[in-house]
């Protein structure tokens, strides 16, 4: 939506102060831009309703804005706004009111916006046998040069990080070699979803795999010692998510397993797979929740449904 005008000086100030607050809290720059932009639509709406002061907002105003968003037409595509778009605005309002409370604003109504249900595509899950096959493929890849051998070994790191550690796509891209503690065998995810951090323990096998990469193979590719990203390309520069997904598809394409090749597998599919496998092996769902970094147990419970759908 186009940036809406705000006449009120105090509303403009609040929008900018909200962005600065998000930035101080360490939110990603895209979030620091997008959330205040969503709040601007709310402030513009208040002005249209002749509400000039933030502490004049009532429960009725929040409910009316809720209905306004649900019924508003998308300017770009026509039709109703997507559930994702509306839920993003709800989240923005919740963070904005959290900011207002933090700065001492009183008399505000409670924000309790019910999220809209999002229809998601069926997740593709790898079987344990298929995961083993992927590991076997990367271990048997041929290389004519040391650099190619290092790049091939990085495919094993891809599986280790996204399947073995269950990271999200962006989390894996942002991992630095400094985030790996080999003494305690813990991976520190510093840039998780919504800027949340978490610690992921790993076993001795994973430790050996990561150590071989960091201290042996990765050194064949890195050119600048100041470059600490875990995943790097043949030129010593950080890899992108697109390149990692391409490498994953390249691994799958080397398989003779028709069923595996017919699946739509992405980096996130590896995360879905490890979650399903952990639950299948009896891990407590709350431990799986912490492992995945889910804020809500309801999100983790999705994987119990996926588990029920898997063939015996």
Structure at a glance:
This protein has 13 helices and 3 strands, in the order αααααααβββαααααα. With 312 residues, the protein is mainly alpha-helical. It folds into 2 domains: 9-102, DNA polymerase, domain 1 (Orthogonal Bundle), CATH 1.10.150; 128-309, hpI Integrase, Chain A.
Describe the structure.
The chain is mainly alpha-helical and 312 residues long. It folds into 2 domains: 9-102, DNA polymerase, domain 1 (Orthogonal Bundle); 128-309, Intergrase catalytic core (hpI Integrase, Chain A, Orthogonal Bundle). The chain is 55% helix and 3% strand. It has 13 helices and 3 strands, in the order αααααααβββαααααα. It has helices at residues 9-24, 29-48, 59-71, 83-102, 128-139, 146-164, 169-174, 204-217, 241-253, 258-262, 267-280, 285-292, 297-309, and strands at 180-181, 186-189, 198-201. Strands 1-2-3 form a 3-stranded antiparallel sheet. Strand 2 and strand 3 (198-201) form a beta hairpin. Helix 1 (9-24) packs antiparallel against helix 2, helix 5 (128-139) runs antiparallel to helix 6 and helix 11 (267-280) crosses helix 13. The longest helix is centred in the N-terminal third of the chain and has 20 residues, at 29-48. Mean pLDDT is 87; it is low at 118-122.
């Amino acid at each position: 939506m186009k940036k809406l005008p705000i006449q009120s000086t105090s509303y403009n100030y609040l929008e900018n102060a909200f962005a600065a607050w998000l930035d101080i809290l360490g939110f990603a720059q895209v979030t620091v831009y997008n959330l205040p932009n969503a709040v601007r639509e709310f402030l513009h709406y208040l002005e249209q309703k002749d509400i000039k002061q933030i502490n004049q907002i009532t429960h009725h105003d929040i409910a009316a804005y809720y209905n306004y968003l649900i019924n508003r037409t998308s300017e770009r595509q026509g039709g109703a706004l997507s559930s994702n778009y509306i839920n993003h605005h709800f989240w923005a309002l919740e963070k904005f009111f959290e900011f207002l409370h933090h700065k001492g604003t009183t008399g505000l109504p409670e924000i309790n916006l019910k999220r809209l249900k999002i229809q998601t595509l069926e997740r593709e899950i790898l079987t344990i046998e298929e995961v083993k096959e992927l590991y076997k493929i990367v271990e048997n890849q041929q290389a004519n040069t040391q650099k190619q051998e290092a790049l091939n070994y990085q495919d094993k790191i891809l599986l280790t990080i996204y399947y073995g550690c269950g990271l999200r796509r962006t989390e894996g891209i942002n991992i630095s070699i400094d985030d790996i503690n080999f003494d305690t065998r813990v991976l520190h995810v510093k840039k998780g979803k919504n800027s949340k951090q978490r610690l992921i323990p790993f076993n001795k096998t994973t430790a050996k795999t990561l150590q071989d990469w960091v201290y042996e193979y990765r050194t064949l590719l890195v050119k600048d010692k100041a470059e600490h990203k875990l995943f790097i390309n043949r030129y010593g520069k950080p890899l992108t998510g697109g390149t990692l997904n391409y490498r994953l598809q390249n691994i799958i394409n080397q398989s003779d397993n028709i069923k595996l090749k017919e699946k739509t597998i992405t980096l996130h599919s590896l995360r879905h797979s490890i979650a399903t496998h952990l639950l299948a092996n009896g891990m407590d769902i709350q431990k799986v929740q912490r492992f995945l970094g889910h804020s809500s147990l309801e999100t983790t419970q999705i994987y119990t449904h996926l588990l029920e759908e898997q063939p015996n």
